[in-house]
Design goal:
Rossmann fold, 6 helices, 220 residues, alpha/beta, 8-stranded mixed β-sheet
């Protein structure tokens, strides 16, 4: 359904996968797991487009896709956060201009952290932020600048991510931000990824999908 396009990014050119809906409801930035802009992320853009959302997945690795966890970890840790902020800004600007209103963000694993990062950086241009078990040790959040409500979706058994949940809750409460966190019992990290056979949980993924769609219907 979608295709690769280029968009402006702080004087440079970035690329991403764009899926266009037949009837436009709004725009969504879809942010990749640590693997890169792979078929799974493109498929998610297509799914959101089927629901009426112009969906853009910026390529945070500039064409690199990991096949093994060690390679993915190295790519994630090598991510330049300052350049990523510029790329996210360009993606948000692109969708904001195309839709004429605040856009949504959603991300998974590393992308979950980037989704929240973008919402904290872009202020009122983000209307709704979804974080699926987000994590990146180098990302810092400007909580005071966050304007969008946050939907956090987490796995019960996720030792790397879950220590951050109470820290995020404390920051959101302290800054009087609107959020809803949900933890799925019996699940592990990446439960939403249907290409990850060992971690995918169909029941949790289906419920999370409906929650995300309802969240966007309410806010963007």
């Amino acid at each position: 359904m979608g295709s690769i396009l280029e968009f402006k990014s702080n004087g440079n050119i970035a690329s991403g996968y764009l899926a266009e809906p037949s009837t436009l409801k709004g725009g969504i930035i879809v942010l990749q797991e640590w693997w890169g802009l792979n078929t799974h992320i493109k498929d998610l853009c297509d799914r959101f487009a089927e629901k009426g959302y112009l969906s853009l997945a910026p390529d945070m690795y500039d064409g690199k896709i990991a096949a093994e966890p060690d390679e993915a970890g190295k790519l994630m840790m090598a991510l330049n956060i300052e350049n990523s902020a510029k790329k996210l800004h360009g993606a948000v600007e692109y969708l904001h201009q195309k839709t004429g209103k605040a856009v949504g963000t959603v991300g998974f694993c590393m992308g979950g952290a980037l989704s929240l990062f973008a919402a904290c950086n872009e202020g009122s241009k983000i209307g709704a932020c979804v974080d699926f078990y987000g994590i990146h040790p180098a990302i810092k959040y400007n909580w005071q600048n966050l304007k969008a409500p946050v939907l956090g979706l987490f796995a019960e058994h996720d030792d790397n991510v879950n220590p951050n949940i109470p820290l995020h809750e404390e920051a959101l409460k302290t800054n009087n931000k609107h959020y809803l966190f949900h933890i799925y019992p019996g699940t592990t990290h990446a439960f939403f990824n249907d290409t990850n056979e060992s971690n995918y949980n169909q029941e949790a993924a289906s419920d999370a999908w409906e929650r995300v769609l309802s969240f966007y219907e309410e806010n963007i």
